[in-house]
């Protein structure tokens, strides 16, 4: 019997592909972010879409579409994130599972 190779996180992420949508599916009111004390989006996003250097920056390429950022932003953050799924055929595509 062949043994199955255990896939590391890096190998699993390499199986994910992205197709950019013409319209943004995440929109952030960065003025609200500047006043947010907890900035939970920086910690919850597995794809590290959000970064903070003097202000919030975000890049939706690579977004895994979990929606976790929207939930934490509205529950314990400033309510600055608007999020919707990308258009059909766009966004993240998971392979092998």
Describe the structure.
The structure is a single chain. The protein is α+β, with helices and mostly antiparallel strands. The protein has one domain: Alpha-Beta Plaits (2-Layer Sandwich). It is built from four helices and six strands. A two-stranded antiparallel sheet has the order 1-6. A two-stranded antiparallel ribbon has the order 2-5. A hairpin with a 3-residue loop joins strand 3 and strand 4. The mean pLDDT is 88.
The helix/strand series, from N terminus to C terminus, equals HEEHHEEHEE
Low-confidence stretches: none
The CATH topology is Alpha-Beta Plaits
Q: Class, according to the CATH hierarchy?
A: Alpha Beta
State Rg.
16 Å
Structural class: alpha+beta
**How many strands?**
6
DSSP summary: helix tally = 4
Strand order in the largest sheet: 1-6
Main sheet overview: 2 strands, antiparallel
Distance between the termini: 22 Å
What is the helix content? 10-25%
Gist?
This protein has about 100 residues and is of the alpha+beta class. The chain has helices at about 10-15, 30-35, 40-45, 70-75, and strands spanning about 15-20, 25-30, 50, 55-60, 80-85, 90-95.
Task: Give me the secondary-structure topology.
Elements: H1 9-14, E1 16-19, E2 26-28, H2 30-34, H3 41-44, E3 50-52, E4 56-58, H4 68-75, E5 81-83, E6 91-94
Antiparallel strand pairs: 1-6, 2-5, 3-4
């Amino acid at each position: 019997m062949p043994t199955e190779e255990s896939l590391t996180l890096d190998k699993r992420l390499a199986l994910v592909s992205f197709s950019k949508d013409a319209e943004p599916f995440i929109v952030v009111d960065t003025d609200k972010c500047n006043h947010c004390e907890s900035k939970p989006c920086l910690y919850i996003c597995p794809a590290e879409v959000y970064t903070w250097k003097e202000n919030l920056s975000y890049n939706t390429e690579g977004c895994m579409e979990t929606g976790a950022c929207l939930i934490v932003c509205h529950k314990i953050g400033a309510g600055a994130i608007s999020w919707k799924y990308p258009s059909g055929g766009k966004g993240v595509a998971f392979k092998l599972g």
